[in-house]
Amino acid sequence: MRLALDDNDGSLTDQIIETVDTPIVILGPNGSIKRFNPASQKLTGYASDEVLGRKVWEFLIIDEEIDGVRAVFEKTRGEDTPTHFTNYWKRKDGQHRLLEWSNKTIHDRSGKVSYVLATGVDITDAQATKLQLSETQAYLMSIIDASPIAIITINERGELQSFNRQAEECFGYKAAEVLGENVKLLMPEPDQSRHDQYMGQYMETGEKRIMERARSVLAKRRNGEQFPAMLHVSEFKDGQPTFVGFIEDITDQKMTERRLKETQFQLQHAGRVGAMGEIATSIAHELNQPLTAAASFAGAVSLKLKKAEYAGCEDAIELLDDVVSEIRRASEIIRQMREFIRNRKTAKSLHNVNQVVQEAATISLIGAESEGVKLETSLDDDLGELQLDRIQIQQVLVNLIRNAVDAMKDCDEKRLKISTAKRVGFVEITVEDTGAGISDEMKERLFEPFATNKEGGVGIGLSISKAIIDAHQGEIFANIRDSPGTVFTVKLPEGAYDEARNHR
Amino acid sequence: MTRPEITDKGTVFLVDDDIAVRRGVTALLSAAEYSVETSKSAEDFLSKLSSLDLSNAVLLVDICMPGIQGLELQELLKDQNIELPVIVMTAHGDVPMAVRAMRNGAVDFLEKPFTVVEVKTALDRALSMSRLDKTPLQSPEPALLDKFEKLTPREEEVLRGIVDGNTNKEIARVLDVSPRTVEAHRQKIMLKMGAASFAELIRMAIALNIDGNYLQ
């Protein structure tokens, strides 16, 4: 059965309704279905016969939306303007489809509503895609927010487009506060004033100054504090050019570096002073010998002159006494010099032994890896802290490690093993190499000043080391093995540590 | 080496690795009428030990030598029950070493370089002990005890610090006073104890059993 629209060419309209791929439904003034085109039939699975005369909300509308649909229907009936509405349809097989409707009321000549014409678009799939997209976006956003690196994006004018959680954390601004602001607010001078120029230059010439490579910069927090950061900028095109910046706060890293640098400096200084002290001690001994001989010779002459046959030589004897007293003065000067240097007291405090060892290893091995030295460390986690002079102990360790590296210079196998271990009453640190080892001749004089078999070596490193370990009531010795290489062992007593504890 | 001619003064076995020291000290001691037998090392001395006449003799040995050191030689002799008074020679100001040697039974120590008077005093004292065959550390002379008891508690503390081989600066830090004050105490102690030299003061302190191990 057909329901022709009240126009001049009903059959054309009919054909359009019948052939379009768009669901079209015509309702009577009370909401009963007057027409249900093939597209509608295809969408719902209902044949035309099954629906004509029934009201849409009786079977096509899902329960939650019935009231809404009826309200729209009432409204559509009352007004002359088209209305738009989105709702679900329940197919014959129970599946739901989401449709977006344009409703239009058609009046008869007397002005009464004769029909409501509803044209729908099935947006179920589009909606699903949209939903999926926003889910994906949320997923990506949460990854970006979880990033430990601050990620920001800016447009070609330098205005902030996104500002992740780490960026909020790092800079102290909330995203909402800074979005749209110029990125230069995150920089200290002089970059702040120059950034627009930088960007302008890039946009104009395409010349990459900081793009595509990480570099270290200074950034500025909300409170004005500046911090060192690694910055990496990439460009991508999202319609218009967008720049994404990855910013990593490297304050901690810098502090570690600085601490290492300071330690290195202190070690060099301590090394120089230690070397002076050791040389002074040696000179004191070496010089004291000829002085002793000289004083004795003078004394001998003086004694001889006192004999009867030399009567009248009192003047000469007095002069000889002056010689001896001057010799003693010289000796005293040397002693004072030695004491002055030796009085450089150990400044002991509690230190984590493993950390002390690790720092020493880091400092001594700068550049050693390029020489092919393989480092193996085995640190005992139970060591804890020990009362020691950090710089002095590191001086010893650096000395031992550098010696080890030097000893392996001409060896094919260059393995360096540094270990710490807790023993009863003391802590043991060993430095083991696979180097040339120590000759029998050297063995005996190992810790004596000026004993060396290193080319260009002065031979005071180990004697200083021994002095330092002695001052810590510890022990240092070399285990000379049959296999190539040497093991140096440093033992530090735990006693000092306990003492420190008890005195608290 | 030829057996030196024995004189009344006694024999000095001089052990030092430095040839100039051996020559100079030999000249000095010969002029002072001791017989001198030199060895260039502890090993050298030990190798000829069996052929030496140890009566009325004293060992004058440098504390710091390559190979067997002065203190070790002293211990080796003690282990072999060889009764030979030992005087160690130290570098100026090496008190802890000297104290250790004295505790090990050395009768005295001489700081290099030394004067005729110092070396003669030390040798004669050692030789008289050698003749009497007495160890000096058994009981301090009553007179020495009297002098010691005149020290104030603070002075006694300073003395202990000195005997333990500390410098004025170190003692000052421990006692929380200025090094100058410690020096003043030191002068007073020397005066009260009647010690002519620092070495003598150390010797007295050792005789009085004053050191870290005997702290009451």
End-to-end CA span of chain A: 105 Å
Q: How are the strands ordered across the major sheet of chain B?
A: 2-1-3-4-5
Task: Please trace the helix and strand order of chain B, writing H or E for each element.
Answer: EHEHEHEHEHHHHHH
- Spans where pLDDT lies below 50 across 5 or more residues of chain A: 496-504
Instruction: Give the helix tally of chain B.
Output: 10
Please state the second-level CATH architecture of the largest domain in chain A.
Answer: 2-Layer Sandwich
Number of DSSP E strands of chain A: 17
The class by helix and strand makeup of chain B works out as alpha/beta
In angstroms, what is the radius of gyration of chain B?
18 Å
* Mean model confidence by pLDDT of chain B: 82
Helix content of chain B: 40-55%
Largest sheet features of chain B: 5 strands, parallel
Domain unit count of chain A: 4
- Give the assembly state of these chains: heterodimer
Strand order of the largest sheet of chain A: 2-1-5-4-3
Helix content of chain A: 40-55%
Give the topology.
The complex is a heterodimer of chains A (504) and B (216).
Chain A: H1 10-19, E1 24-27, E2 33-36, H2 38-44, H3 48-51, H4 56-59, H5 66-78, E3 83-90, E4 96-107, E5 113-122, H6 124-146, E6 150-155, E7 160-163, H7 165-171, H8 175-178, H9 191-205, E8 215-220, E9 226-238, E10 240-249, H10 251-305, H11 314-342, E11 349-352, H12 353-364, E12 374-378, E13 385-388, H13 390-407, E14 415-423, E15 426-433, H14 440-445, H15 461-471, E16 475-480, E17 486-493, H16 495-502
Parallel strand pairs in A: 12-14
Antiparallel strand pairs in A: 1-2, 1-5, 3-4, 4-5, 6-7, 6-10, 8-9, 9-10, 11-13, 14-15, 15-17, 16-17
Chain B: E1 11-15, H1 19-31, E2 35-39, H2 42-47, E3 57-62, H3 70-79, E4 86-91, H4 95-103, E5 108-112, H5 116-132, H6 142-149, H7 153-163, H8 168-175, H9 179-193, H10 198-207
Parallel strand pairs in B: 1-2, 1-3, 3-4, 4-5
Helix pairs in contact in B: 7-9, 8-9
